[in-house]
Amino acid sequence: MALKDVCTAWTPRMLSVLRIMSALLFMQHGTAKFLSIPPMEQFAKLQPYGLSWTAGLFELIGGALLVIGLFTRPVAFVLSGLMAFAYFIAHAPRGFYPIVNGGELAVLYCFVFLYLAFAGGGAWSVDAARNKQ
After folding, report:
1. Residue 127 CB-density burial (10 A; 0-12 exposed, 13-18 middle, 19+ buried)
2. Is residue 4 part of a domain?
3. How many domains, the chain?
4. Domain enclosing residue 51, as ranges
5. Model-level pTM?
6. Are 120 and 72 in contact (CB under 8 A)?
7. Does residue 3 fall inside a structural domain?
8. Residues 58-117: pLDDT tens digits?
């Protein structure tokens, strides 16, 4: 089997790996805010219903949905918007370049989630299992 054929065969699975790993890393922000896992000083006194608290809900719930691949497209679209909003609210005012303003991760999440909104959850997702039925 040619390398191209192997890559083509594995593309839907690797899409799932990208989704799962991105969601697990993203979900850490929500678990740190709400479950103190891992404990972080900056989230110890989170203001209820504030921007960071609300973002934490999206990170925790949206991240969990993306990990399992349930409602991948709409969840990824909402999370992409959340990350664009986070970038322009928290990072852009500190300078134009993401490397200078600390916004690289927000930009990367924004575009990975935007890709997932169009590509879907991949072969290893609840969405794919539901579509087979």
Report:
1. middle
2. no
3. 1
4. 12-123
5. 0.94
6. yes
7. no
8. 999 999 999 999 999 999 999 999 999 999 999 999 999 999 999 999 999 999 999 999
